[in-house]
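Morning - 2-hydroxyethylsulfonic acid inputs below, output right after.
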Amino acid sequence: MDKGNVMITGATAGIGEATAELLAENGFGLILTGRRNERLGDLKARLGKLTSVHTLCFDIRNMEEVNKAVDSLPEGGKEINILINNAGLAAGMNHFHECDMEDWEQMIDTNLKGLLYMSRKVAPAMIERGAGHIINVGSIAGREMYERGNVYSATKHAVEALSSGMRTDMLKHGVKVSTVSPGLVETEFSIVRFKGDKEKARQPYRGMKPLSGRDVAEAVLFMITRPPHVSIHDLLIMPTAQAGALIVHRE
Ligand code: NDP
Ligand code: 8X3
């Protein structure tokens, strides 16, 4: 049975990669994006044995690149039934008055503007078909502000707000809009946040069992396999040892 095509942004690592793997195992067609072309090639070789895989290498911060990439999809593979806006990052973790402005630009341009460019490009065809599903990856940081989380947390709060706005505006067109908001997930996220400092990157996960990308992928699979009349608007998924952004039980 044709389950349709899922586009996953940021599929070259972490949650996006794990979601690509799980959805391939479950027979969804995949359109996978990221900036690291070699990793995209590896994914295509590996997951292409299970399902159809199309890869698009571009920087989500660049609107022209986004539009060109989506327009380049081959006839027959153009239909995007589900869009998972996953690409994102935290850059740095400093007190507000000590933050690097370039980090702010990068987070706002990726987590917000990238999500907007992708959704704006893909949504009109969903509206035309009267069906579609957009899943935005939020965060516990989009529910709670924490010390030194400032702009990253603000971008994820905005993802929550935008998801609600998108859902409201596309309601009558049959397009579902959801957020999945994880707590601590061990991926490349922390290595990126601390700019390659592996010792610092390990700290958030010390003495506790974080989520894996696969754990989040399983939640996403549940969300996209509900019947047409059911929408999981919002899903918060946390490690059992985590009660809030900074409330973590460590052994
Ligand atoms: P990873 O660093 O492991 O993966 C991030 C992905 O985003 C990579 O595939 C990367 O690909 C892609 N990406 C980043 N910047 C760009 C860009 N400018 N253009 C295109 N792709 C980009 O992190 P996670 O898997 O953990 O993060 C995925 C999402 O989950 C993010 O939105 C993050 O905020 C969110 N999240 C993560 C949590 C965690 O604890 N890990 C918790 C809550 C939410 P490439 O470098 O190849 O471009
Ligand atoms: C990532 C989780 O707690 O580091 O969104 O902000 S956290």
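Note: The chain has one domain: 5-248.

O.
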